[in-house]
Amino acid sequence: MDRRQFLRLAALAALPALDAAAQERAQSRPNVLFIAIDDLNDWIGCLGGHPDVKTPNLDRLADHGVLFTNAHCSAPACNPSRASLMTGILPSTSGVYHNPDPWRESPALKNIITLPQHFMAHGYRVVGGGKIYHGAFPDPPSWQEYFPDQKNNKPDDPVPNGRPLNGIPNAAQFDWGPVPVDDKEMGDWKVADWAIGELGRKHDKPFFLGCGFFRPHLPWYVPQKYFDLYPADKVTLPNVKQDDLDDVPPMGRRMAKPEGDHRKVIEHNQWRKAVQGYLASITFVDTCVGRVIDALDTSSYKDSTIVILWSDHGWHLGEKLHWRKFALWEEATHNVLMMVAPAVTKPHQRCLRPVSLLDVYPTLIELCDLKKKPDLMGRSLVSLLKNPAAEWERPALTTHGKDNHSLRTERWRYIRYSDGSEELYDHDNDEMEWTNLAGDPKYAELKKGLIRWLPKENVPEVKAKRGQRAPNADD
Ligand SMILES: [Ca+2]
Ligand SMILES: [Ca+2]
Predict the structure, then answer these.
(1) For residue 375, how many other CB atoms are within 10 A of its CB?
(2) What is the DSSP string of 42-72?
């Protein structure tokens, strides 16, 4: 038995046996279908982020319940965003800020009961498939079963010959183009097949089913038919102001790195092809989501299953001369979040309140009537699920690296870097965050009101020990 198997068994053994009353309560709880999408920004039809995109299935799911139009990640990178959602703890408290940070080694997270573990402790069957946690840190104690397996959470994807297809040398996964295979050979398709199989089974107790899709994460290799939907010469490019970084402090400019990806994309004349590849990858994953939702809708669990779908952060495709996530502006922090909860949500609801992926854990606890966990740092969204216009005071906080924070309210974005430099944007008049108002004395009071929401503690980064496997920074 290896260490991981041991930990998993130890975690199971530690669960208290349920008494008869608890068992009966457990039987009546709703199921949870928990769908994660990697690196999906707000370029989906129902969020209006891109005029060309085709996402009929995500739009349909959003119409079944509440779409949070102003949802933000705790961190604009896979590992810290997912670790925060799954534990309910902020990066500034855990020290998990970046992709290589081994989150279970954080003093704050070492013994934490994760979201799926909490469901397990309440008698649920808890299974997962695909990318839920970041690749290098799959956390077997969180699951009773996993597809493809507890160590390798992600089925392999086929790759085309002749890489890089975009001609940009030495750019690793930063590549795009069609892969000549059938949908069925794609890793995400297999994850959907697995989830459909779970939904077709007879379950004798409630289930928590985690289903994690990898696209539109790089590389953007999906079958040709998805590329054909978006001819490169016709796609709409993001609206970019060439001198946008002139009023951004040096720490922000370093995050944007305009001489990095952006320069390469321009030099190789790849901007249109990149947008095409991202849109193609989005429609591919939309198709996978649609298959799983169809399977739920035709199953006996349709009316007893909560559906939550989220993406782990946004993605820049040239805005602020920046690419990828790893920054504190709207394109990187804004993510997809939608929920359908039988007997709680009504169809066709939009919620404009600034919410956080940190809020997912306490929300699912309340919806499923699990034992409350006072250590969680987010807030339940159930009041907003019932009434999307309900009062909501707290801004959404995003952290990128120690003591670099962004706060988003309905109208404003405020950024403060660790050296004290700042940005302030007015979304009522500047949705692209072009004009930094932080230096204008007129906004001093507004800034003071926002600053009080910044975390009081900013613990050091939990770093991988020397010799430990260091995952690719963009994995
Ligand atoms: Ca990601
Ligand atoms: Ca600017």
Answers:
(1) 12
(2) S-SGGGT--TT---HHHHHHHHHSEEETTEE
Flag whether pLDDT at 6 surpasses 50.
no
Residue 467 banded pLDDT, cuts 50, 70, 90? low
pLDDT tens digits, 75-84: 999 999 999 9
| Counts for the chain of helices (H) and strands (E), in that order | 15, 19
Cβ–Cβ under 8 Å, residues 90 and 109: no
Using the predicted structure, report yes or no on whether residue 236 has a pLDDT greater than 60.
yes
Sign of the torsion angle spanned by Cα atoms 162, 167, 172, 173: negative
- Residue 128 bridge partners (DSSP): 146, 210
Query: From the candidates 46, 64, 72, 78, which is the catalytic residue?
Result: 78
User: Positive or negative CA dihedral for 401, 402, 406, 407?
Assistant: positive
Q: How far is the CA of 243 from the centre of ligand 2 (A)?
A: 7
Cα–Cα distance for residue pair 219/165, rounded to 1 Å:
10
pLDDT: which is higher, 466 or 453: 453
> Which run of H or of E encompasses 334?
strand 334-335
- Helix axis angle for 56-64 and 271-297, nearest 10°, is 50
pTM confidence score: 0.94
By the CB criterion, residues less than 5 angstroms from ion ligand 2 are: 244, 247, 434
CB atoms closer than 10 angstroms to residue 168: 18
Answer whether 109's CB lies under 8 Å from 89's CB.
yes
Q: What are phi and psi of 252, to 5 degrees?
A: -70, -40
261: Cβ–Cβ under 8 A, 6 or more apart, which residues?
171, 174, 322, 323, 324
**439, HSE (Cβ side, Cα atoms, 13 Å):** 6
327 sits in the region (left: phi over 0; alpha: psi -120 to 50; else beta) called beta
Q: pLDDT tens digits for 207-233?
A: 999 999 999 999 999 999 999 999 999
Name the closest ligand to CA 311. 1
Residue 134 is a catalytic residue: yes
Helix axes 78-87, 360-368, angle to 10 degrees: 30
The H-assigned helical ranges of 423-472 are 444-451
Q: What was the pLDDT predicted at 475? A: 54
Tokens of 278: 């991202």
64 is catalytic: no
pLDDT tens string 311-332: 999 999 999 999 999 999 999 9
